[in-house]
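Let's practice the habit of predicting before peeking. Look at the sequence and jot down your guess about where helices and strands might fall. Then scroll down.
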Amino acid sequence: MNPARPPKPPVRFADAEEINPFQLLLDLHDHTVGRTPESGLDDVLAELALSAAVVSWWTRWQPSMIHAALWAGADLTDVAEATGLDASDVVRRWRRWADVQTRLDIGGRLSVDPVEVRAIEQRLGPGVVR
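Done guessing? Here is the structure:
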């Protein structure tokens, strides 16, 4: 359950980061659409705080979505085009994430099955992954 949101949008990153990530996207949209050139400082700071929280959230979320796309069969070119990243950046972000997730034990289970990671590595090829 999410804590009740204040009636006004947050003007600090720390407060914006407490909002559910999907609600954050909606709040940023609604706030940005409603902002006018005459909006005050708090409105500008709110947009900045909401935007910064979205970027922070997505930066953490993106590697798991890259993994999901690769595991679903997407090729590296498709993932690079979907993210707007160079293929080498896609691999670097995914690899860093996978290295941690395959060692992360949660209640006796690894966060990501190393077999999945190895299957993706084999599909991408040895020259691409390392």
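How did you do? The chain has a mean pLDDT of 90.
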